[in-house]
Amino acid sequence: MAFEYTNAKGTKYYLHQTLVTLRGGGRQQTIYYFSRKAGPKAIDTVPEGFKVVENTRTGLPVLKRK
Fold first, then answer.
1. What is the C-alpha to C-alpha distance for residues 27 and 57, in angstroms, rounded to an integer?
2. Coil, strand or helix: which one is 34?
3. CA 1 to CA 4: how far, in whole Å?
4. pLDDT tens for the 66 residues of the chain, in order
5. Domain map (residue ranges) of the chain
6. Dihedral angle over CA of 57, 59, 62, 66, nearest 10
7. Alpha-carbon distances of 7 from 20, 24, 66, rounded to whole Å
8. CA–CA distance, 20 with 9 (Å, rounded to integer)
9. How far is Cα 3 from Cα 43, in angstroms, rounded to an integer?
């Protein structure tokens, strides 16, 4: 079951992660993002050291380091 976050407006978002290759040096980095639909890259928990915060203006959830 994917991690689900409901914002103040009542919209549900699902946490995803993917591994991307950076252009500068070819280094790989994991990125996390929220989507309205749970896809194949959805993850079950918030990564350790992160917390979910909501943008007060737009209502979009983002991950922030603790």
1. 33
2. strand
3. 9
4. 899 999 999 999 999 999 999 998 899 999 999 999 999 999 999 999 999 999 999 999 999 999
5. 4-65
6. 70
7. 27, 35, 19
8. 31
9. 6
Q: Which two tokens stand for residue 61?
A: 């959830």
Nearest to 16 by CA among 1, 29, 3: 3
> CB-hemisphere CA count at 13 Å for 12?
6
**Token pair for 31:** 């990125």
Instruction: For tokens 């409901």, name the residue.
Output: 6
Neighbours of 38 (CB within 10 A): 17
How far is Cα 30 from Cα 14, in angstroms, rounded to an integer? 16
> For strand 4-6 and strand 12-21, is the pairing parallel, antiparallel, or unpaired?
antiparallel
